[in-house]
Amino acid sequence: AIQWEATRFQARTGIRCRLAWAPKNEPVDRTRQLAMFRILQEALTNVVRHAHAGAVRITVRERGGILMLTIRDNGRGITKAELSNVERLKRLFEAFNEKRDILHLLDQSLNAEGVQIFIGQESGYTILDECSVVAAPYTLDNEVVGVLGVIGPTRKAYERVIPIVDITARLLGA
């Protein structure tokens, strides 16, 4: 699926796209495949919309049993103005004021296994359209007692955030 998306992206946009796949030949479970595919789609969408890049390199590797997806481009990066966008921060704080929407989204993760990822409009809440949520339930004595989540911009280092949320949720339940 990753190779298919990379090939399709290059044909559709004309942006050169290289893929390096380094994990062992062990099959990747469906949940991780889907998460990697969705993250790749969002990252490539951001490359087209914001980066003005001419080339993208996608690397999939394994380190210590953790699968890592890295997407790099030769685009312009995020400007200081974009990072300090007051309107974006204001909308995020409005989302926190709309606690019921965020709580409903996190409730969806209570019944899920593993990490759940909601990118932009996938959350179903307009206030979170420019945000992403990475969440995972945690248990105590084999009973789900809460959800750990990270809310931030859609452009973030998912390859770092997802393992942190996953491991932290597991540690909370240990």
Account of the protein in words:
- There is one protein chain.
- This protein is of the alpha+beta class and 174 residues long.
- Helices cover 44% and strands 28% of the residues.
- It is built from six helices and six strands; from the N terminus they run H-E-H-E-E-H-H-H-E-E-E-H.
- A three-stranded mixed β-sheet has the order 1-2-3. Strands 4-5-6 form a three-stranded antiparallel β-sheet, with helices on both faces.
- Strand 5 and strand 6 (143-153) form a beta hairpin.
- Helix 1 runs parallel beside helix 2.
- The radius of gyration is 17 Å and the shape is globular.
Strand element count: 6
**Largest beta sheet, briefly?**
3 strands, mixed
Sheet/helix structural class: alpha+beta
Q: Which sequence of SSEs, written as H and E, runs from N to C?
A: HEHEEHHHEEEH
> What's the number of helices?
6
Q: Provide the helix percentage.
A: 40-55%
Strand arrangement across the biggest beta sheet: 1-2-3
What integer value in Å does the Rg equal? 17 Å
Distance between the termini: 34 Å
The whole-number mean of residue pLDDT values reads 81
Shape descriptor reads globular
How much strand content do the residues show? 25-35%
Low-confidence stretches: none
Q: What is the gist of this entry?
A:
The protein is 44% helix and 28% strand. It is α+β, with helices and mostly antiparallel strands.
SSE layout:
Elements (H helix, E strand, L loop, with lengths): L1 H12 L2 E6 L8 H22 L3 E9 L2 E8 L6 H4 L2 H12 L1 H12 L5 E4 L11 E10 L2 E11 L4 H15 L2
Parallel strand pairs: 1-2
Antiparallel strand pairs: 2-3, 4-5, 5-6
